[in-house]
Amino acid sequence: MSVKRSKRLRRSRKTRALLKLKGKQRLCVHRSLQHIHAQVISADGGETLASASTNEPLIRSQVKYGGNVEAARLVGAVIADRAKQMNIESVGFDRSGYRYHGRVKALADAAREAGLKI
User: Fold this and answer.
1) Is the residue at 118 inside a domain?
2) What is the pLDDT of residue 39?
3) What is the mean pLDDT of the chain?
4) Which of 71, 64, 79 is nearest to 113 (CA)?
5) Rounded distance, CA 62 to CA 72, Å?
6) 28-82 residue pLDDT tens
7) Where are the beta strands (DSSP E) in the chain?
8) Residue 103: which pLDDT band, with cuts at 50, 70 and 90?
9) Three-state SS sequence of the chain
10) Which domain covers residue 9, as residue numbers?
11) Staple 76 to which of 54, 67, 103, 111, CB 3.0 to 4.6 Å?
12) pLDDT at residue 1 in the model
């Protein structure tokens, strides 16, 4: 494992531990160079309640490339809609150790605009 990845995972453990203590469901984000994924995970961490990704045919047909801010905004709006369908109004934002910048920020902002409280 690279040093950069191990540092990111160390940072992510703090956030996850805090959200578990509070007993909140979390909106977990994973980004790669070509795609971005988002999941709403239960408070105990044992179940994925909703998910959205640029790999899905629904989203893939609407964006030209999955690794940009435009695609992240679309994923944020879709995950918020799916969470609201499951009666989830409020979640904690788990950025998985990534900086709150660029695609991660765009996803969070789009989820907020769609009505999800972060």
Assistant:
1) no
2) 96
3) 94
4) 79
5) 12
6) 999 999 999 999 999 888 899 999 999 999 999 999 999 999 999 999 999 999 9
7) 26-31, 36-41, 48-53, 92-94
8) very high
9) CCHHHHHHHHHHHHHHHHHHHHCCCEEEEEECCCCEEEEEECCCCCCEEEEEECCCHHHHCCCCCCCCHHHHHHHHHHHHHHHHHCCCCECEEECCCCCCCCHHHHHHHHHHHCCCEC
10) 3-113
11) 111
12) 86
Instruction: With respect to residue 88, please indicate whether it lies within any of the assigned structural domains.
Output: yes
State both tokens at 82.
């799916």
The residue type of 64 is K
Q: Which two tokens stand for residue 98?
A: 């990534």
Contact between residue 27 and residue 114 where contact means Cβ atoms under 8 Å apart: no
| Domain-located, residue 30 | yes
Tokens of 52: 């959205």
Residues 2, 19: Cα–Cα separation, whole Å? 26
Check residue 46 and give its pLDDT. Answer: 86
